């Protein structure tokens, strides 16, 4: 039997990489196929999705071929076609179809080579799988890939056919690489042949004459959908995806987008992500609503009360009409719950806190998050809408310090609100130009820290902090303060200042918005305390790959808080059979260490989660912090970010792996 050499395994010394997943999720209780694009996928034999209730199995793999490989495939195809009829069988037919498919999809110069190797994974989501964000990875003989976001949804889904590999664009000749994409809809549980594109329906019935006239530049099919639902798509260069639906007057429509959040950073694109634009029009092409971002986030959201019964068109495109396979989106549309504001943004551990929420289509206006037995940090809350559908996630911060609530008016030092540190004040810059002033007693030589949590909690506040004495003299000021632990933020708008007081007396802290904006959504948490030395840890990459009975190193970044300068030692939090760690101690103010992970195992079938802790002595107490796996991602050719992962995993491969060959033999045996 001929085996296409494009499927042959090759050595892969570098880490396995995936750059997109499409679709980037699915509905509870469904089985479907996802396409993942990446590089160094030779020896591919499996996939892994975090969390319970989701299983993934490798279905197919198309390696990016070179011209020599395509020439050999053409020769093989010619030989197969010249076989006498007596030798034709199902196996030969399958192989012929396979080679024809590979050749038809071949692109000699892809627009992005790092996503040109394509894996197809069959995913099964149980009906009781918890909804929300997961992570998916591919497994090869030589390692495990970086994670990519993958969502378990509650709504029915529509998914277009995966885009073919994009051709490289030449400056001034971009039109040569553009293509008109025929987007055939695929609903949950239905094959694409069971449905018909709106463009086809229009040609048959003429019922879309008005829309065709108003949208004469449409290259893609207009897909008919039924609300509520989730839309999965990929934007090709120059393309606009359009969806048609019926809605009744007065319906409170919410359209939320995941795009930048699915592929947080693109190394070779400016500003470094797919920037989707949403436009909602009526059946005559009149614009009803438009959005190109939501507050400070690139992923747009539309809130719209439908003005009249009828049919509407939702258009999705890139802001400057770019596009390729990793311009992936996932849009929820319907009378769905969405939280626009929450207050307070956090609470004290062990103390019940009522969180007032506002938004659209909410079945409740107050949440009571659990606070007992949880560590300090940020958790995610969800409100519910009709039918138990979850809202967008709401960040909620937990801390050991006591909480206070801002009391207006407190706009001037004369009207300042008196507080007694250490504590965390929950407030809001309630109107444009508002300033919140807090008064507290200080002592000579006392070191004070003031820190805002707002942007890290999805508040649009762009804060600044000013510390002044009783005479109005400014002692310290801060606008933006970078937090390396917040890897998805590109504008570190939260303020932080640390100062030593020079005399006994009264001092004032003033919180304001740098752009003089304000509103009920401009909430914040202000920590006022002495220094609280602490640290966080990030391990890069989030997967540790080693050979049988071998070892590997991982880079650990320490994020030191409030001037912490102590030593940090590392240990496995709980013994994991066959694994050990050594070295990597961080001393003084060091922020980067190399940690060695060793194994006595011959191989592992799947990635093994590792929990590593960094331990330090702080104030006479032993403090332990978990090492969070992360990926070092480049944005727009220049900036680097540590993007946190849901888990840190180890993977052991044999020194002479042949699992890919076994997988291929099983695949073609099934085909026979």
Please describe the topology of this protein.
Elements: E1 17-22, E2 25-27, E3 31-39, E4 44-49, E5 54-62, H1 67-81, H2 90-104, E6 117-125, E7 132-140, E8 143-144, E9 148-153, E10 157-159, H3 198-205, H4 209-214, E11 222-224, E12 229-234, E13 241-247, E14 252-258, E15 276-282, E16 287-291, E17 301-305, E18 310-318, E19 328-334, E20 338-343, E21 346-348, E22 355-360, E23 366-367, E24 377-381, E25 394-399, E26 403-405, E27 417-418, E28 423-428, E29 435-442, E30 447-453, E31 463-469, E32 474-478, E33 496-500, E34 505-513, E35 523-529, E36 534-540, E37 543-547, E38 551-561, E39 569-572, E40 579-582, E41 592-599, E42 608-609, E43 612-618, E44 621-635, E45 639-644, E46 649-653, H5 659-671
Parallel strand pairs: 2-9, 10-12, 11-13, 21-25, 26-28, 27-29, 36-44, 37-46
Antiparallel strand pairs: 1-3, 3-6, 4-7, 5-6, 7-8, 7-9, 12-19, 13-18, 14-17, 14-19, 15-16, 15-18, 20-22, 22-23, 24-25, 28-35, 29-34, 30-33, 30-35, 31-32, 31-34, 36-38, 38-41, 39-43, 40-41, 42-46, 43-44, 44-45
Helix pairs in contact: 1-2
């Amino acid at each position: 039997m001929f085996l296409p050499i494009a499927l042959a395994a090759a050595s892969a010394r570098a880490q396995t990489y995936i750059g997109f997943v499409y679709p980037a999720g699915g509905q509870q209780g469904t089985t479907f196929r996802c396409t993942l694009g990446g590089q160094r996928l030779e020896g591919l034999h499996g996939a892994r999705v975090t969390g319970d209730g989701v299983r993934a199995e490798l279905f197919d793999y198309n390696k990016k071929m070179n011209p020599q490989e395509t020439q050999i495939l053409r020769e093989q195809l010619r030989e197969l076609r010249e076989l006498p009829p007596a030798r034709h069988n199902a196996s030969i037919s399958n192989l012929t179809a396979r080679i024809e498919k590979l050749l038809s999809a071949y692109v000699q110069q892809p627009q992005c080579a790092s996503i040109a190797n394509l894996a197809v994974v069959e995913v099964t989501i149980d009906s009781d799988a918890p909804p929300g964000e997961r992570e998916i990875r591919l497994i090869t003989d030589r390692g495990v890939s970086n994670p990519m976001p993958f969502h378990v949804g509650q709504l029915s889904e529509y998914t277009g056919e995966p885009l073919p590999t994009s051709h490289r664009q030449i400056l001034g000749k971009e039109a040569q690489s553009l293509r008109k994409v025929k987007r055939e809809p695929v609903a949950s549980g239905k094959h694409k042949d069971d449905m018909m594109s709106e463009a086809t329906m229009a040609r048959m019935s003429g019922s879309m004459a008005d829309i065709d006239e108003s949208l004469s530049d449409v290259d893609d099919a207009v897909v008919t959908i039924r609300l509520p639902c989730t839309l999965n798509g990929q934007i090709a260069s120059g393309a606009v995806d359009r969806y048609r639906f019926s809605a009744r007057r007065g319906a409170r429509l919410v359209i939320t987008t995941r795009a930048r959040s699915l592929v947080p950073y693109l190394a070779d694109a400016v500003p470094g992500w797919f920037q989707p634009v949403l436009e909602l029009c009526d059946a005559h092409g009149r614009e009803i609503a438009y959005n190109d971002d939501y507050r400070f986030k690139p992923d747009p959201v539309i809130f719209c009360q439908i003005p009249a019964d009828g049919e509407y068109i939702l258009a999705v495109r890139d802001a400057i009409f770019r596009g390729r396979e990793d311009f992936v989106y996932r849009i929820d549309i319907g009378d769905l719950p969405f939280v626009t504001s929450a207050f307070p943004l956090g609470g004290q551990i062990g103390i019940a806190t009522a969180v007032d929420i506002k938004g659209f289509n909410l079945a409740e206006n107050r949440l009571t998050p659990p606070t007992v037995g949880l560590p300090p940090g940020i958790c995610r809350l969800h409100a519910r809408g009709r039918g138990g559908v979850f809202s967008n996630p709401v960040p909620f911060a937990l801390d050991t310090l006591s909480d206070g609530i801002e009391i207006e008016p407190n706009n001037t030092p004369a009207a300042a609100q008196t507080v007694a540190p250490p504590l965390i004040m929950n407030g809001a810059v309630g109107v444009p130009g508002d300033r919140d002033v807090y008064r507290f007693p200080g002592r000579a030589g006392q070191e004070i820290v003031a820190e805002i949590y707002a942007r890290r909690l999805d508040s649009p506040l762009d804060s600044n902090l000013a510390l002044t004495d009783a005479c109005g003299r400014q002692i310290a000021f801060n606008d933006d303060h970078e937090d390396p632990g917040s890897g998805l933020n590109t504008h570190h708008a939260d303020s932080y200042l640390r100062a030593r007081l020079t005399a006994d007396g009264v001092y004032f802290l003033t919180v304001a918005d740098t752009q003089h904006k304000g509103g009920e959504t401009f909430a914040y948490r202000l920590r006022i305390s002495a220094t609280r030395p602490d640290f966080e840890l990030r391990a890069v990459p989030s997967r540790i790959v080693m050979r049988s009975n071998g070892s590997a190193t991982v880079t650990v970044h320490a994020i030191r808080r409030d001037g912490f300068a102590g030593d940090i030692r590392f240990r496995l939090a709980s013994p994991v059979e066959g694994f050990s760690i050594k070295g990597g101690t961080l001393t003084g103010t060091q922020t980067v260490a190399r940690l060695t992970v060793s194994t006595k195992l011959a191989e592992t079938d799947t990635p093994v989660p590792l929990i590593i802790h960094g331990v330090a002595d702080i104030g006479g107490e032993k403090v332990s912090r978990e090492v969070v796996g992360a990926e070092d991602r480049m944005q727009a050719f220049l900036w680097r970010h540590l993007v946190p992962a849901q888990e840190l995993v180890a993977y052991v491969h044999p020194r002479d792996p042949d699992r890919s060959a076994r997988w291929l033999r099983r695949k073609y045996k099934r085909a026979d």
